[in-house]
Design goal:
14 helices; Beta-lactamase; alpha+beta; 3 domains; eight-stranded antiparallel beta barrel; about 600 residues; Lipocalin
Amino acid sequence: MRKFNLTRFSIVVLLLAIFTLGSASTKAPSPVKQGDYDYVKQYLSDYIEKEIEKHNVVGLSIALVDDQTIVWAQGFGYADKEAQIKASPETIYRVASISKLFTGTAVMQLAEQGKVDINKPFRNYLPEFSIKSRFPDAGPITPRNMMTHHSGLPADFFQGVTVKNPAPPSSIIPMLRDSYVKSPPNLAWSYSNLAVSLLGQMVEAVSGENFVTYMDKIIFAPMGMTNSSFELKPHMQHLLSKGYFKAKAQSGFGVRELAAANLYSNVLDLARFEMMVFAEGKSGENRILKPETLHEMLTVQNADVALDFDWYMGLSWFMFDAFGFPEEAGPVCWHGGDFVFYKSILVTLPKYKLGVIVLTNSLEGEKVLAEIASKSLKLMYEAKTGKSIKPAPFDPSKVVKMPEAELKKYVGMYDSMIGTFETKVKNGKLITKFMGAEIILIPNEAEKVAPTLKLFGFIPIKFEALVQKILPIPIENLYFTVHEINGRRVLALNNAGHRFLAGVKLDPVPIPDSWMRRLGRYEVTDKGDNLIYIKSVDIKFHNGFLIAEVTYFGGKKFKDKVAIEPVSDTEAVIMGIVRGRGDTLSITKSADNEILSCSGYHLRLTKRFPRP
């Protein structure tokens, strides 16, 4: 995942940004007067205008839904800056992973009809699918654990996923035959675009119709979603927003994984989908899902998976509260989307039949998306109920001096969604590094450590604001806890009273000489016109671990640092259990060189590093 190496200069710039964060925002009353949606609309209009200008977001559209009514829908900025076409509620965006909600809906319709049993092996419905496994005693991959991201399938197969003219989704089947699952099913939540893409192929196989045609006819048309489809139709083209990075328009790319990420839609159509949810599966006179089916989709499926903590999943729906709502508000059901230059989020409170959709056309939209959605839905909740929302209580003053023997429980190498990091005890304090800066982890209660970031070792920085630049959710009251789960030592990140898996402690493993000889830089040989691609992999040895530093591009450059465990002379597995971990790297010979294969890409050894 993302790993940024900040220079001292850029950290100072970041510090200034944090000190001024939110200073220009309009102050909202708490609580909002009951029934006063006019104030909500005025406040959000002013707030969004300032936020998109501050963060260089070219265009954004938003819709607020109360039961069967669109309370407010508005566009901000431009859908096409060059042509001066303003964004509007009708503007169509690529909504990326919000697509998964609709693929899941189609799967559950087939289940209602008795054509699919979501608890049966997936291969029953797509016999040509196969993938290798290192877990002989594991249970089957099923449509249920695929919809909840517990299938154990790899997250992505990057080669060919985003190109100008992608191969059909079925092309992934032969590619996966020589790949491995990353973990046994139901071990832990691990997001997988591949799993949902395969579900789309199952829908096609079971229905006997082309996936796009089937979804248009069975899902979108009955809900009146006339400007939504998994391919851009001629009548939609004039409404499509361009994508932007640094305010410059980017050329179009296709997506191979249609069912997981290729939906085109706008806030008005997505509002109709939320209305269907609030009407217990009906859209006007059309029954989309039975009430009991919708209830099952909005029921937590993974409460018994210890490593998931509070990262709850329904069927295709995220159900963990990342936004800080009171328990009284009921479950928060949502999904986000990220297609490089397009960012999207759809959030609902089914108990109160409230929803919000925010779509943007800029890579920079990731800086504002979740906060706008959260603020919007909280204001709607206050306006509808008359109840104010207060932050989760947290008293950071309860600092205790933890004995060094206790601190050492936290020491070691950890893997996380932002790469590997080490914790050490230094001068009686537990420290680590984050984004190039040193973090002191201060014990505040038994089994808890609160992060305090010190710039240059002595200038305090608000940790929540720094993390907000990576995690697309509102951040408040962060601290870490340590746990022993199924023989693993793990760190949980606690945010607004909810816990998420932050890191898994890694144990050193023997490194055979065949892999120690491979220390060096490997550079891609088959980039093609992929928008997302792996540029290079540096294999190094550090503190007993074989480390792979992966540099890849997805609109802009990202880095990921992972530990790898050799499992043979030619294969190694990325250590850890979060997204992207458990995947296999393999080595093949090519003339007098070695080729490293990673997520479908082939990389040639171009520089050797000295052995320690």
